[in-house]
Each structure stands twice: as structure tokens, then as C-alpha cells.
Amino acid sequence: MNLIAQNWVAIGSLHDIPPQGARCVENGDTTIAVFRTHDDRVFAMEDKCPHKNGPLSQGIVHDNCVTCPLHNWVINLETGLAQGADEGATVTFPVKLEGETIYIAVSF
Ligand code: FES
To answer: What range(s) does the Rieske domain occupy (predicted)?
Structure first.
């Protein structure tokens, strides 16, 4: 039987991320972009666009989406899915806020 444990890791404060911005954290070989929306919701996904691996953390956050800075694909921050006619998905990670501390769940 394979057991995958999830570990909630505190990665900083909500105020470390500008509204409608992102901050990156490293988890092994994976760079995770943690996004803050204009209304202080947080989302976490791999910092890799499903199109050609563009750095989503440098994109524009709007509503619950981010627009990739390279070719303007729009990625849903909740699902990681490309929107509209584009197809593909970015890996997302569970994330939660406790007070102003952000936690992400990583598997090990
Ligand atoms: S790499 Fe993101 S839209 Fe092309």
C-alpha cells in the first residue's frame, strides 16, 4: 500500500505577498508560486505555465486567475486549468490561511 503523507508548512505571512501578486517557495526541485488575490484569498501552484513553462508568478492576477506573462494564457488559480480555448493544467497545492500565516500542503 502506498501512503502519501501531507505536511502543512508555514511559508510566511499574507503581507509578504502584495495584493494581486505572488511569491515563490522551493520544495525540492519544484518552485511553487503562492498567489494573493485582491480580496486576500491565497492559492498555490507550480510556477510553470502549462503552455511553455512560463513563470506564472510573474503574471497578472485577476479575480481567481493569473495571466501568463509570456503568451497571455489565463490559468485558473483554484484548478490550475487553462481557460478558454487553451488546454492544459498546472499542478496546484492545498493552501490555507490561519490568521495571517500562509500554509501549503506538500507531499513527502
Ligand atoms: S508559456 Fe504561458 S502562455 Fe506561453
So the answer is: 9-104
